[in-house]
Design goal:
seven-stranded parallel beta sheet, Rossmann fold, single chain, 2 domains, 33% helix, 328 residues, alpha/beta
């Protein structure tokens, strides 16, 4: 029997795939806030991880480990390089949540430009006259800058161009020809175009090079009415700097935040008290459809990893495995 540890509940469709696979012993850790217990990890041959952090020390103490299946696309909770050195592939779920996240980005843009929250509250309180404030603006004709043009960024671009937005893209790993083919405009120096854009949407991984990427200097270059959407990873935006901007010079602008530096955020986080900020609990990828797809792909990656037949496109540390002398 091959032991599979699952950290965090996954969709029943994914569990059904694992339960139907012969030869698996499933150990489910339900508490998303609990540290991963080494006693239950030690003899695992596969780890399907939705919640929690696997340390390099823990990984080194798992001699039977053959595959780590991430229930998502970000792997900042895993020691990816160390696992590659051990010959353990780390898999992701690919594009299964791209549509859900892209729709959330557009929903936040619409909520902010159409003043959904403020107008709803006004009607409920009897302030019908708010309609004459003309606070609502249109997306059509406005400039949107996408930082990152992977699966999700491209889905956002499709929807934004359908709203007749002018979409600029910065992604050094994507050719200008690909960006032009998507109906967008490539920009090599994204900071240089900040003064001319109306909205910024982040689609980048978390890491030392992206932490605090949008800070005081970048916010100071943006229009007072600009909107910032982060449905990628917490920490990409300096939250203190964002609060200072949105409660000051950029009070006529706004932000849509699906993720935070610390999750869940403290109730005392100043951003939570601003009326020009739309919030969601890191749930952009958690539509019913995306949750099912993520659970199924994560489960299939476990089965394929144990059988040695992984889809190379879903191996997150494929390059690191090769550099370490291991076949992906």
């Amino acid at each position: 029997m091959a032991k599979v540890v699952i950290a965090g509940r996954i969709h029943p469709a994914g569990m059904a795939l694992l339960e139907a696979e012969p030869g698996l012993e499933i150990d489910l850790i339900l508490d998303p806030g609990a540290a991963l217990p080494m006693a239950r990890l030690a003899d695992a041959e596969a780890l399907l991880i939705r919640y929690g952090v696997l340390s390099a020390t823990q990984a080194a103490a798992m001699p039977k480990l053959r595959v780590v299946s991430r229930h998502g696309v970000g792997c900042d909770n895993l020691p990816v390089q160390e696992l590659a050195a051990l010959g353990v592939p780390v898999t992701i779920v690919g594009a299964v949540n791209a549509v859900s996240v892209a729709e959330q980005v557009l929903a936040m843009l619409l909520a902010l430009t159409k003043q959904i929250g403020a107008y709803d509250a006004a009607v409920r309180s009897g302030n019908w006259a708010i309609r004459d404030s003309l606070a609502v603006v249109e997306l059509s004709g406005r400039k949107l800058l996408l930082l990152g043009f992977g699966r999700i960024g491209r889905e956002v671009a499709r929807r934004a161009t359908a709203f007749d937005m002018d979409v600029l893209v910065h992604d050094p790993y994507v050719t200008d020809a690909e960006i032009h083919a998507a109906g967008c405009t490539p920009t090599a120096d994204w900071r240089a175009v900040l003064p001319e854009i109306d909205a910024l949407s982040l689609h980048l991984p978390a890491g030392p090079e992206t932490r605090g990427l949008i800070g005081s200097a970048e916010l100071a270059r943006m229009k007072p009415t600009a909107l910032i959407i982060n449905a990628a990873r917490g920490g990409l935006v300096d939250e203190a700097a964002l609060h200072a901007a949105l409660s000051g010079r950029m009070a006529a602008g706004g932000a849509g935040l699906d993720c935070f530096a610390d999750e869940p955020p403290s109730p005392d986080l100043p951003l939570l008290r601003l009326p020009n900020v739309v919030l969601s609990p890191h749930s952009a990828a958690l539509s019913q459809e995306a949750a099912q797809r993520m659970g199924e792909v994560a489960a299939r990656n476990v089965i394929a990893g144990l059988k040695g037949c992984l889809d190379p496109a879903l191996i997150f540390n494929r390059k690191a495995l090769k550099e370490a002398g291991h076949a992906a």
